[in-house]
Amino acid sequence: MEPLWRNPELIRHARAELRPARMATAAVVSVLLCALIILMFYHPGIGTTSAPGDRDIPKILYSLLLSIQALVLCLWSLSSCSQVIAAERSLKTFDFLRSTRLTSWELLVGMVFGVPLMAYFAVACTLPFTFILGLYAGFPLLAIAVTYLMLLLVVVVLSLAALTISMMTDRPRAGEVVLLVFLVAMPAWAFMIGVGGGSRFPGLSAILAFVGLQPLYHVAPTPYEPITNLTHVPFFGVPVPTLLVSIVLYASVGAWLLLMLVRNLKKDREDIRLLSRWQAVGLTAYLNVFVFALLDLRPSYPPVSATDVAFGYLGLNFLILYTVGLATLTPPGRLKAWCHFPASSTQFYWSEDGPPSTWMAASAVAAFLFFLLEAVVSRHFIPFSQWPVRAVAGYLFVLLVFAVRDVLFLQWCVLKGFQSPIVKGMLFLFLYYATAFTIAGLFFHPAIAWLTPIGAFVGAKIATPVSIAIGILLQIAASMYLVFTIRQRLSPSLTASAPSNPRGF
Amino acid sequence: MIEFQGLRREYGDLVAVRDLHVSIPEGEVYGLIGPNGAGKTTLIRMACGLLTPTAGRVTIAGVDVHQNPELAQSHIGYLSDFFSVYDGLKVWEYLDYFGRAYKMPIARLTPRIDQVIQQVGLEVKRDVLARGLSRGMKQRLGIARAIIHKPKVLLLDEPASGLDPKARADLRNLLLSLRAEGTTVLISSHILPDLEGFCTSIGVMEKGSLVRSGKIEEISAQESRHYCVVRLSWIGQAPVQQILSSIENISDIAIRGSEGLFRFAGSDDELAVLLPRLIAQGIRVVSFGEVKQTIEELYLKLSRNEVM
C-alpha cells in the first residue's frame, strides 16, 4: 500500500484546495483570529481578572482555541464529507473514479483526509498558539498531544459517518442536516444519560471525548461533580479510564463505518448493501456486547432488577433488528438470483441474495445468546435465577416477528421500484402504526398486541398471552404473504425473455 | 478483446440488457447504435465494471470485469456523454491524477501527460484550470483522461453529444488516430453520421437486445443481397423515367434533374449488362454506379424502431 502522501485522491484535493493564494489567505485569517482572541484576553481594559500574568488566562485561552479548532474541524469535515460522493455522482465524475484502479480503501483514505484538507490546514496554522498557551498554562505536553490525537480520531469517525450518508444518497446536501442533528443531539443525550444521577450507563459519557481527557489536565474538582467523577467508568464491571472507553467506542464505530464504506464505495448506488449477512449478525453481537460492557450493575442507588435490564435489552434489540434488516435489504437485481432457489433448498433461506428475514432471525438468536451470557457473567450482582430468560426469549420472538414483517414490507417497496422506497415504506409503516394505536386506544384494546410489537413491553393486563399469540400468527401470515408477493414479482420476467444472440460476431 | 456472455441487466421490471452474447475482436471499432433507451449506456457501464450484471459476464482482454475489476480496469478507458471535470485542477494536474489513479509509474507518467495533451491538441491549455475550458475542450480533456494509461479498450458512451461540428470533426480525427494505433473501441451513438467511416463493425441495439451485429461490409452485403441502389446521371433529354420503368428488376425510381436513384433487384450479371442497355436506349450516361449504404441507411433497414 502506498504511503498517505502519495495517495492520488489526497494529492488531487491538496492541489485543488491548497493553492498558494488560498493557503496564504487561510493562514493569515486563522493566525489573525487567534491573535485577536489572545489580545482580547490580555487587553488591560477587560475586567480585573484579565490582567496580564493571570495564570488562568492561558488555560481559558487554551480551552477556547481548542474548542474552536474542534468545532471547525468537526463541522467542516461533516459538511464537506456528507456532500462529496453525492456531488461527484451528480457531476458524473464519480464513475470515472470508480473505473480507475484506485481501490475503495485508497479512495476512502484520500477522501477522509483530502476533502476537509483546508480545515486541517487552518487548524494546523493555529496549532503553535494552542501548544504554547497549553505549555505556558502548565499542561503536560503529553496531555496536549493526546488531546489532538483524540480530536483526530473523532474527526475521522465523523468524516466516515458523513461519507457513509453521502454514499447512500443522491442529494448532495441531504445527509448534512441529519448528521448535524446527530452530532449535536446524540452525544448530548448520551452524555445526559451517562452523568445522570444513578445512571446505569456512566460509560456513555465517554461519547464526549473531552470527559476522558480531563484527568490528563489534572482538573481540580469543580461544582460539576458528575463530570469530574467520570474519570473512570465501569467497563465490563471493571473501572477503566473514560479516555480508554472513548477510544474503544470511536475506534469500533469507525471500524464498522470503514467496513461499510470499503465494501460499497465503488459499487453502483443500486447495488449498495451496507453489510453482508454475517457482518449484520456480527453487528448485533457488537452492539449487545458494547452496551453490556457499559452497563453498571454494581449495587448503587436505585437498585436495578433483572427485569429492568431485560426490558432495556429488548428495546435495544428491537432497534438492532430493524437496523440489521435495513442494512441488509437486498437490491432487486440480487433478489432475482435468489428467486432461482426452490423453497425447499437451504439456499432459499440462507442466501446472501435473499430477503434479510433469515439473517434477522440469526441476529435475534445471537442477541439471545449474548443475553444468556450476560446473565451468567452478572450473577455476582443479580442471581441467575432472577433473570427472566424464558420471558426474554418469548418477547424477543414477538419483536422478531414484527421486525421481519416490517423489513419484508420495505423489501417489497424496494422491489416495487418506488422513488426513495425506504422513506416511502417508512411513511407507510408510520401510518400503519398510527392507525393501529388509534384502533387499540379507542375501539379495541387487544389490537395493541395483534397489530403492534408493544405487547412485548406492556403487562399481561393489556396484552394477554392469547392476544400476543394471535398477533404472532397474524404477522407470520402477513410475512408469508409478503414473501409470496416478492417471489411473484420476481418470477415473470425471467421466463419471458429470449436471449439476444444476433447474427454476426 | 471484449466479450459479453449472456449479459443481462434488470431494473425492477425493466430488462435493460437482455441476455447478450457478443465478441468484439482486437483492433475492431464497434459502433453500438440504437435509439435512446435501447440499453447502450447500461451495456457500456457493465463493460466498465460500473454496474453489476443481473446475469452473465463481461471479459476485457481475457479478464472478467466483475471478478477482477482492478486488473480489467487497467485495460479500459471510459468516457461518458455529459460529464464534468474537476474545475479546481489544471489540465496537466487532472491527467496526472488519473495517471496515478491507474497506477502508472511516475517516471512514465510525466512524459505521457505531455504526449496525450499534444494528441488532443490542448498544448496551450496545459497550465490552465479546467474550469476555464470550453465544452469541446473539456471533451478533449475527457478523451485524454480515458487514454492516459494507454488502454487496450476504449469504451465511449455518446462521446459526441453536445459538441459543435468542429469539435465533432476533431473528435473523429482523434478516434481515427487511436484506431490506427490498434486500440479496440466500443462506441455508442444515436447520431449515426458520427460513426460513418470510422467504425469497422456495428451492433444495432433495441429494447435491450442486439438486433444485428457484425462487420459493416458483411451486414451491408447481406442486406443488399437481393437488390442494390444505383445512382445514374446523364445529359440530354432522354425519357429516363420511362426507360427505367420499362426495365425489369428496377423499382423505386427517384429522379431529380439530370440525376436519378433507383433500386435494382437483379443479379450481378444482369447489373453488368444494365449500363450498355441504358446507353443503347439513348441515355447519354455521365456516371453510373452502385451507391454504398451509409450506417444510417443500414440502421434504418435493420431497426425495428422499437424503444423501451
- Per DSSP E runs of 2 or more residues, the count of β-strands of chain A stands at 2
* CATH homologous superfamily heading of the largest domain in chain B: P-loop containing nucleotide triphosphate hydrolases
Strand order in the largest sheet of chain A: 1-2
CATH architecture of the largest domain in chain B: 3-Layer(aba) Sandwich
CA-CA gap between termini of chain B: 29 Å
Number of helices, where a helix is a run of at least 4 consecutive DSSP H or I residues of chain B:
10
Helix content of chain B: 25-40%
Count up the helices of chain A.
21
Main beta sheet of chain B, described?
Answer: 6 strands, mixed
Q: Give a short account of the largest sheet of chain A.
A: 2 strands, antiparallel
Low-confidence stretches of chain B: none
Count of DSSP E strands of chain B? Answer: 14
What is the 3D shape of chain B?
Answer: elongated
Q: Percent of residues of chain A in helical segments? A: 55-70%
Structural class of the secondary elements of chain B?
alpha/beta
Shape of chain A: globular
- Please indicate the percent range of residues of chain A in DSSP E strands (runs of 2 or more): under 5%
List keywords for this structure.
heterodimer, A: 505 residues, mainly alpha, two-stranded antiparallel ribbon, 2 strands, B: alpha/beta, Rossmann fold, Alpha-Beta Plaits, 6-stranded mixed β-sheet, 4-stranded antiparallel β-sheet, elongated
Please describe what this structure looks like.
The complex is a heterodimer of chains A (505) and B (308). Chain A is built from 21 helices and 2 strands. With 505 residues, chain A is mostly helical. Chain A has a two-stranded antiparallel sheet. In chain A, helix 1 runs parallel beside helix 5. The radius of gyration of chain A is 27 Å and the shape is globular. Chain A starts with 7 loop residues before the first helix and ends in a 9-residue tail after the last helix. About 1% of the residues of chain A have low confidence. By secondary structure, chain B is an alpha/beta fold. Chain B has 2 domains: 218 residues, Rossmann fold; 68 residues, Alpha-Beta Plaits (2-Layer Sandwich), CATH 3.30.70.100. Helices cover 34% and strands 29% of the residues of chain B. The mean pLDDT of chain B is 82. At the A-B interface, helix 1, helix 4 and helix 14 of A face strand 1, strand 2, helix 2, helix 3 and strand 9 of B.
